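Forgive a beginner's question, but might I ask you for the amino acids of a protein and the tokens describing how it folds?
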Amino acid sequence: MHRMNSASAPGAMQPASELESGTRSSSKGRVLAWASWDWGSAAFNAVMTTFVFTVYLTSKAFGGEDNASAVLGAALAVGGFAIALLAPVTGQRSDAGGRRKLWLGVNSAAVAILTALCFFVFPRPEFLLLGVSLIALGNVFFEFAGVNYNAMLAQVSTPQNIGKVSGFGWGAGYLGGIVALLIVLQLFVQPAFDWFGSSTQDSLNIRLVAVFSAVWFFVFALPVLFAVPELPRDAQSTRLGFLASYGLLFRRIKAIYATSPHTIYFLLASAVFRDGLAAVFTFGGVIAAGTFGFALPQVIFFAIFGNVVAAVGAVIGGFLDDKVGPKAIITGSLVGLLVAGTAILVLGNGNYSFFGMRWAGTTTFWVFGLFLCLFVGPAQSSSRAYLARLAPHGESGELFGLYATTGRAVSFLAPALFTLCITLATPLVPAGQAQRWGILGIMVVLLAGLLVLLPVKSPAKAPIAVVPAT
């Protein structure tokens, strides 16, 4: 299928989107190599920022759960500002310079290095700032890498299977998280045998988790760098200086709004709800430990089951995406997230009796926490597939840079509301119970994203943007 690009000569038929162009190849080998990056990224997403290292950073060793959680939220908000400022231009320049793959490798290496440096975060309050700074900076480079990685989706898929490929990638990420967490559990947290890395003195075992995560991510990020070809170079665009690239960016945003306004509307809507999705994972392990009393091994067991459920949700959502469209998948997922999150907030860690059966607080988190995992994957996968369908030919990196920027432009929302709700609740609730109210801030962000998304057209009904070359 080809659509007319009005920037072309009259009567000429050219691919209107990168997805429809001849630059993509959906061979199984390339899809597997591309998904390997998602598999490896779980070491940063699941192990470092969700279920192990941030739980370590928000423990009593760093000054108490409530204070450390607030500091972590503030650091992530600062990192989000840096991403918002830089992501679209870095994506634009990697597209134009034919360096999409190169910058994926550079940024992935930076993430691996910053992750390894977390080994030096000792369990004392004076190391809290170092720890949250490394995690926040790692998030910055991870997002930069993600801009190029997501842009490659159009190179390894077709209009007929893009939902499945995107869902497969997310599913690989979740399954990679399961394997990585099992290794972490068996070698470091609850070691199956005695070795120097199992020592808990100065939390050596947890600090070594950071080294393991760095190696895991780096190794599995390599295949895509060999399997997917680099983009052709646009010599005219690469002559632009860095600051001049912002001028081109603004002209292109204006052109996108004029020729495909619903592309901009989706970027704005997804910015809001994706910030809520990120917060679910970022603060999920923190809430499990601080509010529901999960010990670290319990957090990891929950993470393993949660990743299984999330992988299933992402794969099923990917198949449905190609049949009913990404908007329906995203909308349904956000509704499911709101229901599950509200249940966790309302029920909390109390004990209840339903139909003669006792319902403990840990049961609440297991049941509704797994429902959260089920719906996060499809929402993330279909958002990526939604935008890839609308990316103009040769502009996927820039558009996914805008995707990162619009997301990170409001990325302060969920961490800030999480922190604000904890702060407001602290003097009103018993000691140690304020953290649960951070959930309310996340739910507000998800609801706002859903409301903004509802009037946005699906990709099938929205035209591809026509953008100026320079």
